Amino acid sequence: MGIVVQKFGGTSLADTDKIKNVAKAVIKEKNNGNDVVVIVSAMGHTTDYLVKLSSEISKNPNKREMDMLLSTGEQVSIALLTMAIQEEGYEAISLNASQVGIITEKVHSTARIIDIKTDKLNKILNEGKIIVVAGFQGVTEDGEITTLGRGGSDTSAVAIAASLKAQRCDIYTDVEGVYTTDPRIVPNASRLEIVSYEEMLELARTGANVLHPRAVETAKVYNVPLRVRSTFKLENLGTYIIGVNEMEISKNVTGVAADTTQVRIVICDVPDQPGNAGKVFEKLAQSNISVDMIIQSYARHNLNTNDIAFTVDENDLKNTLEILENVKKELNASNIFVDDDIAKVSIVGAGMIDRPGIASSMFNALAKANINIKMISTSEIKISCLVNKNDAKKAIQVLHSTFELGSDEIAEVKGDLPNFV
Ligand code: ADP
Ligand code: ASP
Ligand code: MG
User: Fold this and answer.
1) DSSP 231-292
2) DSSP 315-334
3) CA 265 to chain centre
4) Nearest CA to 99 among 111, 86, 113, 116?
5) What is the pLDDT of residues 2-59, one digit of tens each?
6) CA nearest ligand 2 atom 4, residue
7) 3-state secondary structure (DSSP) of residue 51
């Protein structure tokens, strides 16, 4: 017996029947004798719908007002789920982020949680009530509403689990766990029984959106036992995410992921002098823009200058270009080139450490499938290749079979097909 945090995503709450089904899963956990805190996302595609509404009003909506708008989705879910639990005869109360005290930095749309007040949560749990908290949202010290980035309810859940020292955090979703790749793209993807925090972090960062990367980061730092499981098959135990030294590594590659939300930018003919690369990226960092892959190479026609290529999230493109125009003038660079026809395809596995030949197998497999590689980056447990967007699906399928990740079973997935190239 202890505190269990449960998080339910949008597909699990898509309509009132599904909300009643979630209420049953919550009550099941309460009947196991646990104190239960539930974190919810907005219903179905509500957040996408709200984004669409804003785009009909403004091409570049104010970020504060976007947070005000998007945070409403989760508030609908907390009230309805709490009513559904009460209908079953259990005591429950809904709380938004301000009421809990989920304090974030003063950044709109991608805020990080800096503190969670636990007094109120503990008091209500001691009264025997189930608490239903709005995910994805936070509040600054001076009362401004913020959001944590798309998919951020996972992070709300893990952060609350960490602050309450919960015995576990269960992420309930529309698939039965973490798979070797997105089962919607490769139907015979295998469900992983366990995966390490490190590998899950790389998978999440490279596009496996089954978990928000910061949720995994937080779980790793605070050692929160994390599990991904199905809302629709409560009897299945899903995937455990645990520390790397607690598990045996058998395969070189654990999973394959793709990210189709980045754009590649090249700033051409930057004079080859110390400090210039720093100037380019310092300005971007000051505007809170995260840069992913970076390659600096001599410009083909002039060995005294460099071309610096890098990728950013497509949502940061406009800001990035504004900043780079000034940097271009300051450094006397020649051109800025944008390529939005890209996808980053990655293989991840703790088993690739000190095992040569994995990179060449990846490149050869892509070449055999006639897929051109535009950029490459590596870390200890990950290799990423930038390819054309149209090749992303084929690249995942080819790599998944090259590294023998398939299973005989066909994964069962609920919800709509993702908008994947
Ligand atoms: P929720 O609304 O519950 O937060 P998400 O859509 O954010 O659900 O995440 C679940 C989806 O993640 C699945 O439906 C699946 O298509 C996708 N996905 C991508 N990569 C993986 C993976 N490696 N394992 C499982 N699911 C994955
Ligand atoms: N509702 C938010 C989104 O759609 C947060 C989440 O679902 O985790 O991104
Ligand atoms: Mg999600």
Assistant:
1) SS-TTS--EEEE-GGGS----S--EEEEE-SEEEEEEEEEE--TTHHHHHHHHHHHTT--EE
2) GGHHHHHHHHHHHHHHHT--
3) 23
4) 116
5) 999 999 999 999 999 999 999 999 999 999 999 999 999 999 999 999 999 999 999 8
6) 47
7) helix
Residue ranges of the domains in the chain? 3-246
386 vs 236, residue with greater confidence: 386
Of 180, 186, 182, the residue nearest 199 (C-alpha): 180
Looking at the CA of 51, which ligand is closest?
2
What does the radius of gyration of the chain's CA atoms come to, in whole angstroms?
Answer: 22
- ∠ CA 123-128-129, nearest 5°, is 85
CB 196 within 8 A of CB 243: yes
- Expressed in angstroms and rounded, the spacing between residue 175 Cα and the centre of ligand 1 is 7
Q: Which ligand is nearest to the CA of 175?
A: 1
Cα–Cα distance between 251 and 314 in angstroms, integer? 33
**Using CA of residue 368, residue 369, residue 370, residue 373, what is the dihedral sign?**
negative
| pTM of the model as a whole | 0.92
Residue 336 exposed, middle or buried by CB count within 10 Å (0-12, 13-18, 19+): middle
Residue nearest to atom 8 of ligand 2 (CA): 151
What is the C-alpha to C-alpha distance for residues 13 and 37, in angstroms, rounded to an integer?
A: 16
* Residue type for position 305: T
Q: Which of 173, 190, 226 to mutate to test the pocket of ligand 1 (most atoms within 8 A of CB)?
A: 173
- What is the phi/psi pair of residue 307, to 5°? -100, 130
Evaluate whether the domain defined by 3-246 bears CATH number 3.40.1010.20.
no
